[in-house]
Amino acid sequence: MMKLEKYLEILPKSLWVTTCNSGSCNGCDIEIVATISPRYDIERLGMKLVGTPRHADVLIVTGPVTKYMTNRLRRIYNQMPDPKAVVAVGNCGASGDVFYKSYNLDGPIDRIIPVDVYVHGCPPRPEAIIEGVAKAVLKLERLREDLKKAGEQQS
Amino acid sequence: MWGKVYTGFGYWDASAWILFFFIAAFFTLWLRSQGRSDYKKGTDQDEIYWSGNEVPEDGEDITVPASSAYWGFRKALEPFYKGLLGMHTGIATDIVGYYVIAVAFLAVFILLV
Predict the structure, then answer these.
(1) A32 by DSSP, 3-state: which?
(2) What stretches of chain B adopt beta strand conformation (E)?
(3) Is this complex's ipTM strictly greater than 0.85?
(4) Nearest CB to B49: which of A3, A73, A79?
(5) The domain containing residue A59 runs over which residues?
């Protein structure tokens, strides 16, 4: 936790989000791009896409997780600092959808990393993605409180 | 030694520069001290982010060098480069020999034309 964060009662900074395409057809990724473009503009809601998981609070994952991407997805998740939340965007990420029996899948996502929010749709609309990330904020606030309590107990 | 050095664009003062360096260093270190220190050391959180890949021993293993942008150019001019490389022995007397021949050729050309 940053030093300044200790003095704040609410989430201390804008939500920084990173994405990982684990084998998606790109349909969901296009909708994610739509959420940052002027029509939906998630930055006005205090969210921001960042290029590295090491700066991110939320990981948005698209795609059903192909075998090639399994270790990469796990590594990206592990590189995020705590507290962190994961949002699975699209039906593929949630269940594998039409690819669920495919030979080249290790997924869906929750077989590889813990998922906090599922956003359904093929692809989901930007409003749904924004709602999903907003739900992740609630989860993050709870995790942050838990970390704070654990820190106080230690000290 | 600590005087001002005047240039066409103004002056350069060593002590002012050193003072500015210390102010900038103080601000930078303060900003750095405000950063997160709760990374779990020795885990992936402490590792370099390499697009989800393991950090390679040698970055060239999985990166594309800028020279690849010219592969077509190099392929097209391969016979020309082969000739040049064949002539390039790396021996100084050979280079001087080419120089003497080129100068002699130019001299003849200039004298005749």
Answers:
(1) helix
(2) 4-7, 10-13
(3) no
(4) A79
(5) 13-147
